[in-house]
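Fill-in record for Cobalamin import ATP-binding protein BtuD.
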Amino acid sequence: MTSIIDLDHVTFSYGDTVAVRDVSLSVEAGEFLGLVGPNGSGKTTLLHLMLGLHAPDEGTVELFGQPVEAFDDGGRIGYVSQKATSRGGAMPVTVRECVTMGRFAHAGHGRLTDADRATVADAIETVGIGDLADRLVTELSGGQKQRAYIARALASDADLLALDEPTVGVDAESRDAFYALLDDLNDDGITIVLIEHDIGVVTDRASRIACINTELYHHGDTESFVESDALAEAYGATGQVLHHHH
Ligand code: ADP
Ligand code: MG
């Protein structure tokens, strides 16, 4: 198998706060990795390290087989940050314009061909918001915005989707539909790394789980995670409530 992301003994601190300590793990092409852990356990930081948004203090990160600091093919990655759906001050662009921005990585000097426009239209249809293409992104609900951002990633031909708690603030029905969409995309071969606070959702969907609380408590297939004590151990020190929705 080909590693899309490879972390080797990675440590990262914010000043005196160690957020990620000595984590080694890899994400293989086509897998669906669920990243779980209590609040403040380093999930967002770890995702940022994976994508080269933070440089590790110790250890190394490879992205698509290259040292992450040398990686420059951002179009291969669709990243939706933790605050993406709730952020108010977005640019007043339509869904179609937003998704078109994802396509510019492939269009020389910003000139879009008919084929680029067709790719944009396809991406918008794929995520099920064709009827919203001419609406402003700022007018969409959280779940619809999430879909627009995924469409933008698809239009850029991303083969890795990195999602940080994408359904916070999204109603249950839209959330289920959104996760069904992720399943379809994963079936089509897109690699997914998903941070999700609802453990039940992740264990239903992901093929492998990484469970962290600063250090890695578990990394392996979902079944062995469910059977292990990793979850209780990782959450144990924090006293946070676990949410099982089944
Ligand atoms: P999670 O996503 O699991 O909630 P984070 O990666 O956001 O965790 O945070 C991990 C730890 O790092 C926490 O203790 C948090 O307070 C701290 N932290 C996160 N971002 C910053 C920052 N920009 N500056 C200082 N500390 C931070
Ligand atoms: Mg976070």
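KEY FINDING: The CA atoms of residues 51 and 207 lie 20 Å apart.
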